Amino acid sequence: MGTRLRVTGAHHLPREGGVLVASNHLSNADPIMVTVACLMGGRVPRFFAKAGLWRVPVVRAVMTSGRHIPVHRGKASALEAYRDTVDAALAGDCVVVFPEGAFSDRADEWPMKAKTGLARVALTTGTPVVPLACWGSQHVLPQGARLPRVLPRRRVELLAGPPVDLSDLRSDKPTASQLREATERIMTAVTSLLAEVRGESPPPENVKA
């Protein structure tokens, strides 16, 4: 796609066993970029993705062959997607989740408030969560664009960090406060990595004290 892609920290992905990768989300190009990062870490990723992608002719084949996990609207469907993600983690797969659930709608492009589904999977299964920051993909394929911008070549950077320590929150039935705490830790880690890539300080509300 005419990009200069730099991936750092892929060694933080464990080579074996279940792992959850938590990334910020700015563009439809993110899955491609994150896939490259995971492959560099020796893992083939499965994505927790919107069910609408299975209705796109070419994309449908990719999503099906990759055994990605569709997320439908509605409580029952969300529960099914959660169970599929738990099964994938326990089976030793690498599952990528965008905790925000959608593109960031912030003008400054820092992560917005995340959902707690990823934290629930991590706490109930004990699966490690590797934070990942992706920056520059929004310039390659801006939100709403159908085709990528090829020229001039854009730089895209991905930076992975060590697994987030959630050991003290592990529970078969995590409470709402435990889920919020775990989600905050995960997103603080993602935001800190993003700050490093951007060379900027994030807004105070994006960093847990």
TrEMBL record:
The keyword Transferase applies. One of its GO terms (cellular component) is plasma membrane. Keywords: Acyltransferase, Transferase. SMART domains: PlsC (SM00563). One of its GO terms (biological process) is phosphatidic acid biosynthetic process. InterPro entries: Plipid/glycerol_acylTrfase. The keyword Transferase applies. Coiled coil: none annotated. SUPFAM superfamilies: Glycerol-3-phosphate (1)-acyltransferase. GO terms for molecular function: 1-acylglycerol-3-phosphate O-acyltransferase activity. Residues 19-137 form the Phospholipid/glycerol acyltransferase domain. PANTHER family: 1-ACYL-SN-GLYCEROL-3-PHOSPHATE ACYLTRANSFERASE, POSSIBLE ACYLTRANSFERASE. This is Glycerol acyltransferase. It comes from Prauserella flavalba. The lineage of its organism: Bacteria, Bacillati, Actinomycetota, Actinomycetes, Pseudonocardiales.
